[in-house]
Model the fold of this input.
Amino acid sequence: CGESGAGRLLTLTEIVVQLTAHLNSAEQCLAGKKVMITAGPTIEAIDPVRFLSNHSSGKMGYALAQAAYSAGAEVTLVSGPVAMSAPAGVTLVSVHSAEQMFNAVQASVQQMDIFIGCAAVADYRPESVQSQKIKKSPEVMTIQLTPTIDILASLNDLPTKPFAVGFAAETQNIKDYALGKLEAKKCDLIMANHVGIEGTGFGSDDNAVTVLGHDLQIELPKQSKTMLARAMISIIADTYKQRKL
Ligand code: C5P
Done:
């Protein structure tokens, strides 16, 4: 296609990011650490041509993968379908459904130091997937949905659990709901953000979050997801190191 291929020069942005990652050792707060990040939406098949999904673009998760890599981490990015390429240097595991994402996470999460659940995992999937395309009819149709596995919460069943960071995208009572998730899913940190506000959240290039932990609350105001990811990685690295002390 002339756009990608072996030997082709990286984009200017990628060259700058790679150089920054390797030259700026002062910012290598995750040097030698293994970080797994889930990103993007999951898609849950209804039949061979239809699915249930959500508006996640994957931008926040991919920015976190880039920031963690720049901070010296070995990064595994488990991603649902998005319209972006993985940052150079990051190991990409592509999945579609919540079940595939769960299996990909379980395959190597025990070797990780830090897990960041940034994916907008579908909470429900159709109970059965039709093998043939469902034909249109004038009748009202009901699709029976069944809950998916909670990937983040499932880390609590592991014999060795990595430092766990969750996201809580809410449209109301953000802090209360986020703190509820911090406790329910036994995360070390949760990134709470208000979705549904123009210019932040799903699909947008900017975002604003409140970082909540046990005895910790930090407001990260609206900024580019690239900058926000760097700030989040710095807080994650600090809190992870304190927990290890
Ligand atoms: O409960 P809720 O979906 O709002 O929780 C959001 C957090 O849980 C995010 O970190 C998300 O990646 C994670 N999650 C998950 N598996 C699910 C649902 C959510 O890992 N099935």
